[in-house]
Amino acid sequence: MKKILALMGVAAMLLQISPANACTNVLVTKNASVDGSTLISYAADSHDLYGELYFWPAATYEAGSMLKVYEWDTGKYLGEIEQAAQTYTVIGNMNEHQLTIAETTFGGRSELRDPEGLIDYGSLIYITLQRAKTAREAIKTMTELVENYGYYSSGESFSIADANEVWVMEMIGKGEGNKGAVWVAVKIPDGYVSAHANQARITSFPLKDKENCLYSEDVISFAREKGYFNGKNKNFSFADAYAPLDFGAVRFCDARVWSAFNIMNPADMGQYEAYALGNSTERMPLYIKPDRKISHRDVMNIMRDHYEGTALDMTKDAGAGPFSKPYRFRPLTWEVDGEKYFNERAIGTQQTGFSFVAQMRSWLPAHIGGILWFGVDAAATSVYMPMYAGMTAVPNCVAQGNGDLLNYSDNSAFWAFTTVSNRAYGRYSHMIEDIKKVQTELEDNLTSFTTAIDQSAKALYDQNPDLARQFLTDFSINQAELVTERWKRLGEFLLVKYNDGNLHEEVDGEFLLNEHGNPKHAKFPGYSNEYYKTIVKDTGDHLKIRELPAEK
């Protein structure tokens, strides 16, 4: 292991993961899901990203209209491109046709970034959602955009799905002076699941199966030209050529894929635990068959994973503190006495701006079939709220402009949820149980509601599609506002229950009183026995109770 680390170097580890774009996607095909939905999840993990729901209404434009492009991460103006004659309504990362696109940044070879490109990865997603109806159309639109205008970002893995197909596409630029990108897109076979998390995942791919695999004409020849590959075409690996593995790519990134796969099929994934730990270079497959059908609720819980119950469990070591907090504040790597160390990077993380689980259902009209289950702040302490693809407006509590990362808003969902999560960090093992109780109650209700809403909306849609869209809009807005208000009350409840490190007893949210009508005497649960042992190990006899010395 030391030899591997010495060869790779900590500096190389950091090249593969951009701190602002450390995200996770899980993909589920129709025959792998409980109800025949296709599913894609996404966590937009960034220390500088505010959680809000993007919205673009459908529109038509005159010939010659231009669209200004701004880099999604920074807001930097990149230039103008030709506007489409017709655009579609976009709710977050899903459009009105149930097309959904998500991403994770793998970085790859730094020399392949094109500083003159006009299309960054974020703009590529949101422009495409306004222009394409299906996953295959999206792939065509995305690759044509970067071919025509240049690709500004580093290497990206994209999840692209409609109600019938699920694809992974990986793309990287060609460097300064070379417009366009090299890319490959693989359709995930029906009945299988996939995932990616800031490391390129497509290795070899079928060169003659255009139904299930698409790629740029020069994806192999360009790698040869640059000296990244010199074997036979059939042995070409996109990931090995354009984003070679290093320790960071495995332990910070692919380990999250392993954990997602391990949740969906633990029996088959045990063989890859050594890889997840950085003790092997035997890559995992791009996709696996789950050992059961996967629901949208299963995917929500995967997005909340902190490696619990595995060799990478973040709740077990001293870094978790006295209350088993599964988060580590940055930096990701650190040094003690000349030795370099790192923190685990799980799927669930505190720096999430927003996350979602997109559910696309082919048996319903697109406006009803698509649900973007949307949450803000850390997934483990958030609630996924249903946003229908047919919505014509978004809730104010998640709307753009309602507060920002540096300006608190009292009616913002992001600030309501981040208040609760930050409160929980101080006494996590206790507070998370209260949080999960309300979280589960709300998500159970919302799942039940959508079943009824689907039926009512379908009946209405058959008579008046516009009225059905208004019905869906009202439902999504009302539920989001109710969830936000409920979470604000939860934050108040946690403050009272755990005030000053005490524990005030309650039953169903009602705090107990003594026989005189005053607050019942608080409890002092203290730290876990394991943490007290850590204190003793650190302090020796300094805190040990002992007899005073005898008088002289």
Automatic annotation (TrEMBL):
InterPro entries: Peptidase_C69. The keyword Protease applies. Residues 1-22 form the signal peptide. Gene3D superfamilies: Penicillin V Acylase, Chain A (3.60.60.10). Keywords: Dipeptidase, Hydrolase, Protease, Signal. It catalyses: an L-aminoacyl-L-amino acid + H2O = 2 an L-alpha-amino acid. It is an enzyme of class 3 (hydrolase). Its EC number is 3.4.-.-. Pfam families: Peptidase_C69. It comes from the Bacteria. Belongs to the peptidase C69 family. This is Dipeptidase. It comes from Carboxylicivirga marina.
